[in-house]
C-alpha cells in the first residue's frame, strides 16, 4: 500500500512556478541563431546565388563590309607554289662549297654552290692554247703572203720588159694565191679555236650553281664532297640537286571540289580562305581557274585560288579551308551596310530602345554587359546590328526581364 501511495504522489502536478531564464542564456541563444543565419546565407551565395543566371549565348557574325557575300560552298585544300625548283648543276661534278641554308632568302643569279673546277679549268686552258696556236699560224701565213704578193708584182713588171720568162711570173702568182687560201684557212681555224674557248668558259661557269629566281630555300640537298649530277648517274650515292627554292610571291591554293558541286564555282569568284594554323585569320582570295579535268578515283575537280594577301605566315603545303562566296543580289551595288548579324532572340527592347547583353569574362567570372544597339532588318530569325556590337562578341539569347548590367551569368549552351 505504501508503495502505491508513493507512486501516486509522484504523479501529481507540481504547481510551483518555473524560474525565469538567465540573461546569459538569452544572449547565447541569440548568437547561435545569428550564426545559423549567416551560414545559411553564405551557403546560398556559394551554391546558388553566385553561380549566376543560366543563359544561352550566340556569336555575332560580320556582315556587309562592302563584300555582301554569303558562302555557297566550303572545301579544303593546300597552299602550293607555282614557282618552285630543285636547283642542280648542268654537269656532273664534285661539290666544293654549298652557300645556302634552309630558310635563307636568295636573289636571282645568287651563287648557291660551286663544283670542283679542275676539269673545266683544264679544258679552258687547252682551248686558250689552241686559240693562240691558230692565231700564230695565221700570222705566219699572212707574212708569207705579203712576201709572195710583192714578188708577184716585181715579176709582173719584169715580164712586161721581157727580162724574165712568163712561167716564172705565173709560178709566183700561183704561190701568192695558195698563201691567200692558207691564210683564210688559218683565220677560220683561229675563229673555231675562239668558239672553243668560249664554250670552255661556259663549262667553267657551269661549275657555279646560281638561283634561277628570287625565293626562299626550303631544302638543302647536298654537302661538300658529294657527287652531283642532273642525270642521277651513280645510283643513290649521287645527288640530283643542291637545294629547293620557292617563290613566295607565287603561293596559291589548290582545292579539290566534288563533281556534284563544281557547278557552283565560277572563275573570278570571290573566296574567303582560312589557314588551319590561324583559324581566326580570314584571307580574301579569288578563283583563278577551274582545271578542265576530273580525278576518276576521287570524283573531284581541281580549282586554283589566288590569295590577295601576302604574308610570311603563309607557307607551302599548309592546310586551308576555303569558302566560295556569292554576292547577294540586293547588295551587288556595293551599298551594303557594315555591321554584324545576331539571332533575333538576342535583341531586347528596354527603355524605348534596342539593347543586347554581351558576355564579359569567362567561366565563373562571366557577367552580362548591357549594350545599346541600332538594329535594322529582320528575317530568318536574324537581326542586323549596325552599331554597338563587334564581330566575334558573344551575346545572351532571350535575356531574362530581371537581368541587369553587371549581373553574374552562367552559360549553359551556345
From TrEMBL:
Keyword Transmembrane helix attributed: yes
Keyword Membrane found: yes
Transmembrane regions: 26-47
InterPro entries: Beta-barrel_RND_2 (IPR058792), MdtA-like_BSH (IPR058625), RND_pump_MFP (IPR006143)
Recorded coiled-coil stretches: 131-196
NCBIfam families: RND_mfp
Family: Belongs to the membrane fusion protein (MFP) (TC 8.A.1) family.
Name of the protein in its database record: Acriflavin resistance protein
Gene: acrE
Amino acid at each position: 500500500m505504501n508503495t502505491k501511495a508513493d507512486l501516486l504522489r509522484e504523479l501529481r502536478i507540481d504547481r510551483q512556478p518555473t524560474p525565469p531564464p538567465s540573461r546569459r542564456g538569452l544572449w547565447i541563444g541569440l548568437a547561435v541563431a545569428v550564426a545559423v543565419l549567416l551560414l545559411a546565407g553564405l551557403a546560398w551565395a556559394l551554391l546558388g546565388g553566385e553561380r549566376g543566371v543560366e543563359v544561352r549565348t550566340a556569336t555575332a557574325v560580320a556582315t556587309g563590309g562592302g563584300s555582301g557575300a554569303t558562302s555557297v560552298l566550303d572545301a579544303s585544300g593546300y597552299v602550293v607554289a607555282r614557282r618552285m625548283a630543285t636547283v642542280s648543276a648542268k654537269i656532273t661534278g664534285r661539290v666544293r662549297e654549298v652557300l645556302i641554308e634552309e630558310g635563307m632568302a636568295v636573289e636571282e643569279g645568287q651563287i648557291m654552290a660551286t663544283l670542283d673546277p679542275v676539269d673545266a679549268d683544264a679544258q679552258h686552258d687547252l682551248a686558250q692554247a689552241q686559240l693562240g696556236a691558230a692565231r700564230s699560224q695565221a700570222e705566219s701565213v699572212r707574212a708569207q703572203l705579203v712576201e709572195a704578193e710583192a714578188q708577184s708584182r716585181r715579176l709582173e713588171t719584169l715580164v712586161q720588159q721581157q727580162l724574165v720568162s712568163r712561167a716564172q711570173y705565173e709560178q709566183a702568182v700561183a704561190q701568192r694565191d695558195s698563201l691567200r687560201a692558207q691564210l683564210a684557212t688559218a683565220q677560220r681555224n683561229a675563229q673555231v679555236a675562239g668558239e672553243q674557248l668560249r664554250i670552255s668558259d661556259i663549262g667553267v661557269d657551269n661549275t657555279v650553281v646560281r638561283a634561277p629566281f628570287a625565293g626562299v630555300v626550303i631544302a638543302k640537298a647536298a654537302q661538300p664532297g658529294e657527287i652531283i649530277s642532273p642525270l642521277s648517274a651513280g645510283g643513290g650515292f649521287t645527288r640530283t640537286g643542291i637545294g629547293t627554292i620557292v617563290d613566295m610571291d607565287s603561293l596559291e591554293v589548290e582545292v579539290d571540289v566534288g563533281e556534284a558541286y563544281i557547278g557552283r564555282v565560277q572563275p573570278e569568284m570571290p573566296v574567303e580562305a582560312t589557314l588551319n594554323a590561324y583559324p581566326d585569320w580570314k584571307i580574301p582570295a579569288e578563283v583563278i581557274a577551274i582545271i578542265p579535268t576530273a580525278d576518276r578515283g576521287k570524283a573531284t575537280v581541281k580549282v586554283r585560288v589566288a590569295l590577295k594577301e601576302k604574308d610570311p605566315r603563309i607557307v607551302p603545303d599548309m592546310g586551308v579551308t576555303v569558302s566560295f562566296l556569292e554576292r547577294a543580289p540586293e547588295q551587288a551595288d556595293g551599298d551594303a551596310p557594315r555591321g554584324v548579324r545576331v539571332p533575333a532572340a538576342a535583341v531586347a527592347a528596354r527603355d524605348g530602345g534596342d539593347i543586347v547583353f554581351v558576355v564579359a569574362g569567362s567561366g565563373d567570372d562571366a557577367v552580362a554587359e548591357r549594350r545599346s544597339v541600332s538594329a535594322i532588318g529582320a528575317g530568318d530569325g536574324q537581326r542586323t546590328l549596325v552599331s554597338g556590337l563587334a564581330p566575334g562578341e558573344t551575346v545572351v539569347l532571350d535575356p531574362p526581364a530581371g537581368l541587369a548590367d553587371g549581373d553574374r551569368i552562367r552559360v549553359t549552351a551556345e
